[in-house]
Amino acid sequence: MPDIMAAHRHSLSKAELRKSNKPIMEKRRRARINQCLDELKSLILEAMKKDPARHAKLEKADILEMTVKHLQDLQRHQMRSAVSADPSVISKFHSGFNECATEVSRYVSTIDGVDDGVRRRLLGHLTGCLSGLNQVIPLASARLPGDVNNNGHRSAFVAVSRHSPPASPGSELSVQVPEPLPSPSPLVPGLLMQVPRPSTSTGADMWRPW
């Protein structure tokens, strides 16, 4: 009996200790967030070549929004630079992604035990990713000679089809999605796309997103 009472008092003391430490931990957490935001503010203003004196009172949301936009611009610039250095990189990238997305689509459409809602969300997510990829690299594949990739196979990219998701509001970028395969899919028909058949000699030129 004394042991039980002692254990009960010990558990109460631990709970009380956690409760008393909670305000301290919350204060430290907020301090870390504010410190990181201050550092991020300095970095983003320097990167965007803005005068810190004119942006001394930026809100936290403004700092985060500026950072997101800056990173998106960097990503677009890097992708365009890669395409300029090697025009075939866009074909390799799309071929690899399309092959993976098609394989996932075929697999989840035939496997048993997968909830229909999960299946639809997964295929819808992949379709959205395809749209996002084309927004990051707008019409890059159209600039390749004859839309033929480095393996000599013609790319299957076409203009937006009825299966493609709508573009985001205010977007100035055209969206392209691959053409659907002849075999229909009851879930997301636009995801079952044609992909360039890889060369039988080597698969080293195929870019894969893993």
TrEMBL record:
BHLH domain ranges (all copies): 17-74
Domain Orange: 93-126
Domain of life assignment: Eukaryota
GO molecular function, one term: protein dimerization activity
Record GO cellular component, one term: nucleus
SUPFAM superfamilies in alphabetical order: HLH, helix-loop-helix DNA-binding domain, Orange domain-like
InterPro entries: bHLH_dom, HES_HEY, HLH_DNA-bd_sf, Orange_dom
Keyword Membrane appears in the UniProt entry: no
BP terms from Gene Ontology: regulation of DNA-templated transcription
A Pfam family of this chain: HLH
Region described as Disordered: 161-180, 188-210
Cellular compartment(s): Nucleus
Keywords for this protein: DNA-binding, Nucleus, Transcription, Transcription regulation
Protein name (Swiss-Prot/TrEMBL): Hairy
Taxonomic source organism: Nezara viridula
